[in-house]
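Task: sequence design from structure.
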């Protein structure tokens, strides 16, 4: 794993990948590098304008790349269902599902379906998407689901009695809880896949501190110019590039030795550097919490993972 880079990605010819939030940042880099190695890549993005522009940019950087844009709004379960239906009509296989899209430290808000925005987009949207695409994943030999979490998960465990932060809301606490939910989802998905003897690998990754627009979005949405400027300075001075930040995701998606329920991040203190096994808070691998979150997620989204019942 030491020194692993994008040049080490195995040939992906004949494989199909879905990357959420692929119009910018580490999602775009992930899609580009998979396409560069021969994968057929679906860019699943909320904005049609940005998604179409990303396809054009990617083809310009990787001539001959086989890529397409399909609209996906993870904050709207109807959109998630429409995406899954569209994908199943067009593709017989799904080798890689990269649950990358996310929002960070936003002011209190609600998704179309009434969920707290960060929990709804970062966890519930991806939970529903994975469940709806499960038949394609189970039907594809060697498929993988990689969910992008964050070192920030260590800030807070989930509160199973207040998943939507009704009692109290803090933008960073809500973000941390959504990232813990990503890890608990991976933990329980890996366990359930193993129970049925599936070779689908569920793994997690995080980019460390990578310079993307994720850091500035919350402050920009609230018009907090000083905070937005502070984040931009941090991106320039301390962060690694989006290209470097995408490496843990690419490793988890393609390296031959990736184990189920693994967590890959940057080697240097989880901050930057080449991919390495990353530390997880004890609550992120709690079996009972993972099971309860799964049950609540099925109830809230209405997406039941048939064939993966406990």
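Answer:
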């Amino acid at each position: 794993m030491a020194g692993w880079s994008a040049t080490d990605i195995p040939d992906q010819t004949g494989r199909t990948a879905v990357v959420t939030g692929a119009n910018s940042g580490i999602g775009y880099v992930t899609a580009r590098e998979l396409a560069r190695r021969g994968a057929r890549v679906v860019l699943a993005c909320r904005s049609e304008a940005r998604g179409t522009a990303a396809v054009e940019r990617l083809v310009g950087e990787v001539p001959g790349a086989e890529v397409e844009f399909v609209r996906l709004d993870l904050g709207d379960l109807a959109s998630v269902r429409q995406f899954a239906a569209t994908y199943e009509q067009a593709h017989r296989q799904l080798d890689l599902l990269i649950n990358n899209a996310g929002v960070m430290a936003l002011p209190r808000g609600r998704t179309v379906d009434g969920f707290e925005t960060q929990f709804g987009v970062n966890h519930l949207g991806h939970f529903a998407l994975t469940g709806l695409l499960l038949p394609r994943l189970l039907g594809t030999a060697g498929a993988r689901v990689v969910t992008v979490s964050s070192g920030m998960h260590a800030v807070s465990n989930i509160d199973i009695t207040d998943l939507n932060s009704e009692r109290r809301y803090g933008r960073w606490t809500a973000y941390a809880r959504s990232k813990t939910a990503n890890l608990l989802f991976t933990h329980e998905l890996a366990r359930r896949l193993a129970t049925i003897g599936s070779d689908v690998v569920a793994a997690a990754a995080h980019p460390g501190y990578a310079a993307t627009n994720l850091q500035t979005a919350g402050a920009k949405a609230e018009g907090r110019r000083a905070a937005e400027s502070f984040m931009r300075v941090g991106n320039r001075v301390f962060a690694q590039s989006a290209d470097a930040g995408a490496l843990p995701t690419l490793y988890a998606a393609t390296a031959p030795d990736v184990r189920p329920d693994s967590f890959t991040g940057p080697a240097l203190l989880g901050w930057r550097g080449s991919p390495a096994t990353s530390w997880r808070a004890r609550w992120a691998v709690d079996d009972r919490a993972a099971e309860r979150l799964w049950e609540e997620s099925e109830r809230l989204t209405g997406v039941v993972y048939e064939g993966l019942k406990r």
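The chain is about 45% helix and 15% strand.
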